[in-house]
Amino acid sequence: MDYENKPDGYYNNTREEMLSFLPATAKKILDVGCGNGLFAETVKNRNNAEVWGIEYMEKEALKAKDILFKTFIGPCEDHIENLPNDYFDAIYFNDVLEHLVDPYTVLENIKGKLSPNGVIISSIPNIRYHNVFIKLLVKKEFEYQSYGVLDKTHMRFFTKKSIKNMYTNLGYEIVTHIGINGSKSLKPILYNIPVLFTAMDIKYPQYATVVRVKK
User: Fold this and answer.
1) For 29-54, what is the mean pLDDT?
2) Torsion over CA of 148, 150, 151 and 156, rounded to 10 degrees?
3) Alpha-carbon Rg for the chain in angstroms
4) Number of CB atoms found within 10 A of residue 109's CB
5) 121 with 55: CB under 8 angstroms?
6) Which residue ranges form the domains of the chain, and what is each CATH number?
7) Which of 142, 164, 167, 211 has the fewest CB atoms within 10 Å of its CB?
8) Which sign, positive or negative, has the C-alpha torsion 191, 196, 200, 201?
9) 80-91 pLDDT per residue, tens
């Protein structure tokens, strides 16, 4: 996979919009796909928390090591069993699950690493985002790009509904499930007029979801 030739800033995105989903009481946090640790550092400072990270890219992970409590280098699938059980109050997957061959098994296996009231917080691209959806529907185009919804390193594609189904089918319950970074274009509104505004999910390039293990 071509993770080396990403645009500048790809691995040091602070993802401010994802901070609002962090529980104020979370003190032990895992950031899967932590990049160089900038987002995790913000989380650490905000909650005065112990933050761990997992990062696929060694170059970025070595930077995160200087910031985080503990950092694992390599595929997250290789490190889940090394994480402590019943430990993390929050586990972040910011634009990570779509890069995995089998995100379902990862989400199943990581359940036991959550504390009793722990949550998983994820950001996942929406394949029905209007810029992508219209190109596919009208222009019959499905061209991969270096980043974004059609990032060429994506292994899986999701919609608002399929994200929710993934979690519920794995035994999680939804706490929050909302679109983020919504388009400022009028196009999603215009496209919705013929369908009586029943497809407003096309406004959002990503969905943020917070879940906990169903009891």
Assistant:
1) 96
2) 120
3) 17
4) 15
5) no
6) 16-127+156-183+205-213 (3.40.50.150)
7) 142
8) negative
9) 999 999 999 999
